[in-house]
Amino acid sequence: MQRVTLVVVATMLAALPAFAQTTGAPGPTAAVPPHHALPAAAPAATQPGQAKPAASTSVAETRSAAALSLSHEPTYDQGSAQRIRDVVKSYSDLAARGGWPTIPTDAKFALGAQGAHDDLLRNRLIITGDLATDKATGSYDEVVADAVKRFQTRHGLAATGSVTPRTLAALNVPVQKRIQQLEASLERLDQMDFQFGQRYVVVNIPATFAEAVEDDKVVRRYRVIVGKTEKPSPTLTSEITDVILNPTWTVPSSITKTEIAAHMRKEPAYLSRMHMDVLDAHDNPIDPRSVDWSGDHAPNITVRQQSGAWNALGAVKIDMPNSYSVYMHDTNQHSLFNDDYRFDSHGCSRVDNVRDLAAWLLKDQPQWTRAAIDAAIATGQRQDVRMLKKVPVAWIYLTAWMTKDRTVQFRNDVYDQDQQLLEATAEEAAFFNKAAEHPPTAQ
What we know:
Low-confidence stretches: 1-56
Number of strands: 15
Mean pLDDT: 86
Helix content: 25-40%
Largest sheet: 8 strands, mixed, barrel
């Protein structure tokens, strides 16, 4: 079988799990507007201006460095659509020749031991360019383990070199399914109108990573937490206009009507414990005890959380005007960035090591160094910093793409949107084709 000429970068750091994601089952797409997740409880008492411990910053920076070391090639750039078209053609040719073999679900692979399905695995890895063509036979050795690591990295899995159940499931996804992912990603890019700049930011939702791109290279990469399957993050394009230090959080009305009200019915002191104020229609503070939290009707009030270590937005908010009222921000639950499955917000994007991103966004304003940002946060006072040069930002939903170094990447369709998009596109095409076959006649 002729090998598809899809070259995988052999220098990826196989041991780093920074690009890892689990293969959680996709959930239904919700109709409710996306917003932030409401924290279950405030952290231990801390003064509003207290700086983050040095160890926490070090961990975040280490995660970002590990993510960046995997590749400096952007997920999304001006050549992305054409490259996906090229991959669709290659994978379609591969499908016409039979695709790749299926590995039995009970297959066992052990490093250094001969197994019944070792050559089958080697053949599977050769077909997609993860293993050299001259390595078609032999036991499960270090060469095959390295090829498995390359495959895992390309599919957002922890690069362990072992054929885990998730790895085996990814290996057995049919080529036709991969083509559908590529076609859906291409359809989305064809519908986008993004103004690439010399600097821009991209959040790829299925990959749960944000990239800061400068001069066509990724110079920063961060883990992000995006919307739950029932409250998905939207795709959008905008411009970053402001960096807000020590932000307050105005709780979306949908969360107030459901989650806040439920908490207040169980625990009348909840708002006080969470450092939240209740405001009337004129933004004046009122006593929470004067509000009917019974759930029989929506209270006509606003809930706002004060700045501080307890704030759900953390110490930094990155504003980007859009019709979905979503944005990028810090969090008071940094341990969540350790998770591989990071679909846990109400739609906004929580960014790991976000102070580093803020410093990069404000690099054209010399007074706002990282040290200056840290010092301003340490005061505990809110400060809105207007961007002198707005930075374009795109939130995209790509489950399949190819970077400029010819590395083909796949991620899980966590929101189950690929098939929906392809079905809608097919229905639209069928409608217009039928209309063309039966043009209206002159009366």
